[in-house]
Design goal:
GO terms for molecular function: gamma-butyrobetaine dioxygenase activity; iron ion binding. With 378 residues, the chain is an alpha+beta fold. The protein has helices at residues 26-31, 84-89, 121-126, 128-141, 156-161, 228-238, 240-248, 296-314, 359-371, 374-377, and strands at residues 2-7, 11-16, 21-25, 58-65, 68-74, 78-82, 118-120, 143-147, 175-180, 193-196, 208-216, 219-220, 223-227, 251-255, 263-267, 270-272, 278-281, 319-322, 329-333, 337-341, 344-345, 349-357.
Length: 378
Amino acid sequence: MLRSATHDPSVVTIEFDDGTTTRFHAIWLRDNALDPETRAPGNGQRLITIGDIPADIAISAAGVVNGDLSVTFAPENKTVTFPADWLAEHSYDRAQSIAFGRIAPGITTWERGIDAPSGEWAAVQSTRAAKRDWLAAVAEFGFAKLTGGPTEPESLLKVADLFGYVRETNYGPYFEVRTEVNPTNLAYTGLGLQAHTDNPYRDPVPTLQILYCLENSAEGGDSIVVDGFRAAEKLRDENPEGFALLAGYPARFEYKGSDGVCLRSRRPMIELSPDGELVGIRFNNRSSAPIVDVPFDKMEAYYAAYRQLGEIIDDRAMGVSFKLEPGESFIVDNTRVLHARLGYSGAGSRWLQGCYADKDGLLSTLAAMEMAQPEAAE
């Protein structure tokens, strides 16, 4: 609830019941007006363009009506009501963090020692609360397991159906990770893989990856996940100049392993938003192309930072490991969490299927569930 509102032609200042105050500009309020002529009642999409707002927009009146803000705009002589709770949620008159390489709210970074977040197949498929908790774990930690699922091929597509759609690539809607011990073909080896993000040569990169286990009778072959954001935090704290180099210059990635395919990207290994928030990691030694966008006098320092980041990622204290059983899967945020595989030997086989999906679908599904009434969400 609002206690008071004062204004001049360009700014409204409001005071909430708890005594806090905040300010809003006339142009911002007019652009975000909630009336049905400005926003479609059904979907909330804006019905006006910035050019439809008079260049000389001003506030001619402002006051508190039933605890909410009422504003009249000139020269339109248009009055709009803004709910107090909506204003509190959208306030921008506050100290904003500009810390370089900071982590976004709602994200928890981690290393070895945490329990892998997990959901159970039947519960996640049938119970909204279990599904919501599983999706929330992916959003917060960047990965989560799913246990107790079926062992039929293509079951991973049902995982993607929980929140969105498969992103088909040149590998198809899904791909096989079928390796056998004592193979007849080197493609089916049990060699270990360094922690990496997938497909850094794509732009945009697939933002989610699902790996689903159908067989795993071989010894070893554990899956490992590493929080790339925690690794970046460590580099930032230990070597801020090196962090700035990896964030400030693009690396290059390339894949041309099959006929008709030549994928290339030019993106930094550590990606920041314009205001310094950490938004992505691309790290994959197998897909790295020659780095040519770093100035000569900074190349050696760049490579030193690259090596240091790799050492942090390879540190065993960073990884969370688990062995997938048939019917188990895990999902990773491919813009953040790196995954690896231990080598294995002996008798047996290991067969996983993998696919890609997009994080916007998962976050949309989660947000819609969190906005629902508790009784409906259950």
